[in-house]
Design goal:
Helix content is 39%, strand content 27%. The chain has 312 residues and is of the alpha/beta class. It folds into 2 domains: 2-225, P-loop containing nucleotide triphosphate hydrolases (Rossmann fold, 3-Layer(aba) Sandwich), CATH 3.40.50.300; 231-296, Alpha-Beta Plaits, CATH 3.30.70. It has a 6-stranded mixed beta sheet, with helices on both faces. A 4-stranded antiparallel beta sheet has the order 2-1-4-5, with helices on one face. The chain has a 4-stranded antiparallel beta sheet with strand order 12-13-11-14. α3 crosses α4. The chain binds adenosine-5'-triphosphate and magnesium ion (MG). InterPro entries: AAA+_ATPase, ABC_transporter-like_ATP-bd, P-loop_NTPase. Keywords: ATP-binding, Nucleotide-binding. One of its GO terms (molecular function) is ATP binding. This is ABC transporter ATP-binding protein.
Length: 312
């Protein structure tokens, strides 16, 4: 059963920018779905369309079994969206913010109080209740913002870059919160992120998009094995040394797909053992001072770079 099915979505803005082109994707009910893509790939445009704030130029979208353009009002009452800027009012207390939200959705007062208490305890917000919201850290504000959006018991929760700019502890707390929302509330989560390890550890399904179109969609495991291509990594002592030798090694060993990542040269290879032998021999014979050489299986980041970098 699908929560969202988008087919052939095109979006051309008035200024002529084609933000989405023939995009297709499907999100299963009850899963965490992560959308990955470089800046300008069209992620926020897609979220604005799925949350009915923006109309596509063409295409069809079924959400929770309904056509979202014909039944936009119903859909709006069944979803919630946490944008990058928080929607909380820092002049109000935590409780006032939550009760205000419940009035927007016309939730009866006793029911609203019950929901609020559950959310406050489930999302670890109790200890912050006595402090003014204006004193909250960015991570706690974001947590409150999500709790507010859960007041209406949405079937789908959209999150545009929920963990951007957070330190690792806050991000991990946020991951736990998202898993709880999926597991305990049964809510489908659709999020965008730039953090590959986040998508990898958190999502049931990942979709990578480029230039307004999906390039691949699958489980993190499926994506990692997609290229079925190992990489060879030659590590140097300094970034400068890696940079100095990269062209030299690529030319002498006739390597095509080579890139630099800090102190490491990364080579895509179809025959990792043969290439390892060839390169290792060359490095030793040429007295190139490398730190280590190894074969490694593709990470989600490798797959992402292979699929989104423009020289493909
Ligand atoms: N309101 C708008 N009018 C015209 N062009 C727009 C508008 N909003 C976005 N764009 C353009 O559409 C393309 C996709 O933008 P979008 O914001 O959807 O990308 P994104 O994937 O969310 O990027 P980021 O990772 O930087 O948030 C970009 O080329 C952008 O400049
Ligand atoms: Mg965006």
């Amino acid at each position: 059963m699908y929560a969202i099915q988008a087919e052939n979505i095109d979006k051309r803005y008035k200024n002529g920018v084609q933000a989405l082109r023939h995009l297709n994707l499907s999100v299963k009910t009850g899963e965490i779905f992560s959308l990955l893509g470089q800046n300008g790939a069209g992620k926020s445009t897609l979220i604005r369309i799925l949350t009915t704030y923006l109309k596509p130029t063409s295409g069809t979208i079924m959400m929770l079994g309904k056509d979202i353009f014909r039944e936009a009002a119903t859909i709006r009452s069944e979803i919630a969206c946490v944008a990058q800027q928080t929607s909380i009012d820092t002049h109000l207390s935590l409780v006032e913010n939550m009760m205000f939200q419940s009035r927007l959705y016309r939730i009866p007062k006793t029911e609203a109080k019950k929901r609020m208490e559950t959310l406050i305890s489930d999302f670890g917000l109790k200890q912050y209740m006595e402090y003014p919201v204006s004193s909250y850290s960015g991570g706690i504000k974001r947590r409150l913002d999500i709790a507010l959006n859960m007041m209406s018991k949405p079937k789908i929760l959209f999150l545009d870059e929920p963990t951007v700019g957070m330190d690792i502890q806050s991000r991990m707390a946020m991951w736990e919160m998202m898993k709880k929302i999926r597991d305990d509330f049964g809510t489908t989560i659709f999020l965008t992120t730039h953090y590959l390890e986040e998508a990898d550890s958190l999502s049931d399904t990942v979709c990578i998009m480029k230039d307004g179109k999906e390039v691949i969609q699958g489980t993190p495991f499926e994506l990692r094995t997609y290229t079925r291509q190992d990489t060879l990594q030659i590590r140097f002592i300094t970034n400068a040394e890696a940079k100095e030798y990269v062209t030299h090694i690529a030319e002498h060993c006739s390597l095509k797909e080579v890139r630099l990542q800090n102190d490491t040269i990364i080579i895509n290879t179809k025959d990792s053992h043969a290439d390892l032998e060839k390169i290792n021999l060359f490095l030793i014979e040429s007295h190139i001072p490398y730190n280590g050489i190894q074969i490694s299986q593709p990470t989600l980041e490798d797959v992402f770079l292979r699929l989104t970098v423009n020289n493909e």
